[in-house]
Amino acid sequence: MALLPHLAKACHVLRVDVTSLSQRSAFSVSAVAAAIQKMTRVRVVDNSPLGNTPHHRAPRVIHVYTKNGIGKVGDKVMLAIKGQKKKALIVGHKMPGNRMTPRFDSNNVVLIEDNGNPTGTRIRVPVPTHLRKMEGDYSKLLAIASTFV
Amino acid sequence: MRIDKCYFCSGPVYPGHGNMFVRNDCKVFRFCKSKCQKNFKKKRNPRKTRWTKAFRKAAGKELTVDNALEFEKRRNIPLKYQRELWKNTVEAMKKVEEIKQKRQARFIINRLKKGKELDKEEAIVEVKKNIHLIKAPHAGKAKQMEEKMVQKLQEDVDMAEDNI
């Protein structure tokens, strides 16, 4: 019986320690890394005037042209930029994908016409090389890209 | 095919291993394993993380300035393909690797020599302090007594001779 107060004191010390540990972070503070879907804000990385003029609303994806609504590298999407609709191609996303493909710090997109030709004339941001192997005619896009990753 | 260096630990990243991260300033970071990647995401400085090569070189624990290490530096000038050059390069690579290992090992051994001397001195001090644990209390005394007796006898003989 004489042990109990001693144990209680020890437990009290332990309990204080545990709460200070659990108070550190009850939730994750880093951004969600999801693939590109409807309503995602994207970053236009070519030098087209439509993509580079500032607007009070960031360009957003309003439709993803895949069977499921998930957009990965090489998928075409429809953007809403400056109050108009424009098609674009995804060239990099924050979500980690295949191990041998790079992960980017932002969701990058290149503006495209309906026939697949790029709107801008140069892409300064690094573009993943596995676009070359993908099904689809990305030759014009790869031609205007300056660096590959 | 190129064997890259991990950004965090400076280890080799062989093809098929590791991850790549592209930052928005177009800088590319290669990682050899998720340990390095996780540490990078935690914003740890590799020059302060003790197990990385970056720390060891910055803290002077490993060879930094050496001719053998100059061969590893990246050259951004493309060379025209020549078979002879390739053959010679492969042979040279083997030799340079050998020399580099020896030099690195020698550097570390030289660095640790001081520690060995300090260890020895410490050991001597410890033995002297705790000699009572090893040596019996009257260990060398018998010989001392014998020498004293011999000396005394000699003196007695001398005195007796003088008296005579």
TrEMBL record, chain B:
UniProt-listed Pfam families: Ribosomal_L24e
Subcellular compartments: Nucleus
GO molecular function, one term: structural constituent of ribosome
Main location: nucleus
Keyword Nucleus: yes
GO cellular component terms, A-Z: nucleolus
Keyword check for Nucleus: yes
GO biological process terms held by the UniProt record: ribosomal large subunit biogenesis
PANTHER family noted in UniProt: 60S RIBOSOMAL PROTEIN L24 (PTHR10792), RIBOSOME BIOGENESIS PROTEIN RLP24-RELATED (PTHR10792:SF8)
Biological role: Involved in the biogenesis of the 60S ribosomal subunit. Ensures the docking of GTPBP4/NOG1 to pre-60S particles.
UniProt family annotation: Belongs to the eukaryotic ribosomal protein eL24 family.
Name of the protein: Probable ribosome biogenesis protein RLP24
